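thought: fold this chain, then report.
action: predict
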Amino acid sequence: MKAGNHFYAIEDMPTQIPVFPLAGALLLPRGQLPLNIFEPRYLTMIDKAIAGNRMIGMIQPIPEASGQGEGESLCAIGCAGRITAFAETGDDRYAVTLTGIARFRTRAEVEGGGPFRRFEVDWRPFIADFFDQVGEGGVDRNGLLSTFRSFLKANDLDADWDAVNGMTTEVLVNALSMMSPYGPAEKQALLEAPDLKTRAATLVAITEMSLARSSGESMPLQ
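observation:
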């Protein structure tokens, strides 16, 4: 079903989308990602997206790739989002917010698409992304929150626990994944997790390893 330019089902999705390569940025379905756009080619991309379906794909460069800029190698999987907030800052920048729709797998790059890159994409591996709260029952929510508390304590941070406790499990897992302070490889692992349970378990494992390193503890051999 589609209402205006809001996409809700796989059959409504375009076969080609522009992509914004950004290392360390993670967008997940129904999550919100603020972006500060200043490079001219991506200002053009935002202009064209707003004039169309407001959709762009967030994708990471491959961490080990030596290519830079226009021809850099990209990860095969990204996540598409719709521009749901937009403001001009007055200094030739755009402040936008993307709301995640669904992940995609790139197929082939579209040539002659202008100053930014476009790809043919396949949504079919991620059909579950179009339905909210899928797989929540398999998540160890208590274990996730326990690890989150340990992370906050180790970093002398606090949280709005009323807000946290009011989140659905899907929103909680995806929000914590997107806000996590980890590197591109860890962010890509969270993105590519096949289901919510695996994403939550991956986030817990990454956080526990980070806490162990920061405290000087040795990790047990598996």
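thought: worth noting. The two ends are 46 Å apart (CA to CA).
final: tokens above.
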